[in-house]
Amino acid sequence: xxxxxxxxxxxFRRSVSKRLSPEFKEALDGLPGVPQLKRVGERPRLGSxxxxxWDRRLFIYVGARGEASTSHSRDRLxxxxxxxxxxxxxxxxxxxxxxxxxVDRGMDNFVAWLLVGLFMFQFTTRSIxxxxxxxxxxxxxxxxxxxxxxxxxxxNVTRELLLAIPSFATMLVLIAVIPPHALPTPLFLLMVPLLxxxxxxxxxxxxxxxxxxxxxxxxxxxxxxxxxxxFYGSGVIIPILNYELPQWVxxxxxxxxLFVMLEMYRSILVYxxxxxxxxxxxxxAWAVGAFLVGFVVFWWAEESYGRE
Length: 308
Fold this sequence. Notes:
Largest sheet: none
Helix content: 55-70%
């Protein structure tokens, strides 16, 4: 009886080894018995998880590029809406807050200040809005294939970056041609490392919100409210610090990493001044912290994604 079982195990090993990866073939060499087999969807170790993400980096990029190219395929104007929408917003807010409410008093270049705030803030909000429904919207793929689920968040952030590049170029052209002209300088190159840090913040927020959205589907209903709070609390369209505020409100505003981020972009692109070293360290600390917390929180629940 034992020899029959051994013979059956050998036949099983030979029949499936042709179709399995080398790693799994090595695991089969430990048969008889199944102590080395793992449950489908089990959370891998963190090191293995990171290695799997790195191995799939090309797949993630190609997938993100494909989604970016087809994201507005049903619209007549296509990807032009990525430029038209923030421009319409800028015109609307300029009429309301500059021409009617006169909030631009004492500011030399309110148009450039407004455009930089809108374009760079919307880059972050587009990422985090999609992040809330990331797991639920990808449930069919999660159930059909085995892959590190964090690749969905990385793909989402990469797609939004690819979509935003034309709008960034448009923003730079607009602030240069609209009086009083924020002309390009070598200092504009600081936009590249600042954008890299912003991407890290976006990814951390997407990972956290994807986990929350998978756990609490109703959380998506709150996103419009959260975005409005961030919009007005980050000084996107109103120079908040030009007004007298209670000290505790001013501390909250100046401690908001998105507010610090926009002030850094405006310092580089509008005022032609390098951001303070303290701002760089503060925003980088927020970016690294958001990413580490988001990644661990997301990875910890890896086994739960795709379940009802």
